Backbone:
């Protein structure tokens, strides 16, 4: 159970970090997606293109709801 909490906290942190990056990034969406994918790969998380698009959509919805 403790490991699950750690994983959930990590994924929450990744999500918030990515959301902040998208919110404040003056770059094109494609460039931002590439940078997010690079950060996730460095953390050992591999996503295919469809999974990355889903993650970006979720982050965008969270940021939109927070406004």
Residues:
């Amino acid at each position: 159970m403790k490991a699950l909490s750690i994983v959930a906290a990590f994924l929450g942190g990744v999500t918030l970090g990515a959301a902040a990056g998208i919110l404040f990034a003056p770059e094109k969406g494609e460039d931002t997606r590439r940078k997010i994918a690079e950060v996730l790969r460095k953390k050992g998380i591999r996503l295919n293109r469809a999974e990355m698009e889903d993650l970006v959509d979720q982050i965008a919805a969270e940021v939109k709801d927070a406004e």
Remarks:
- The chain has three helices and no strands.
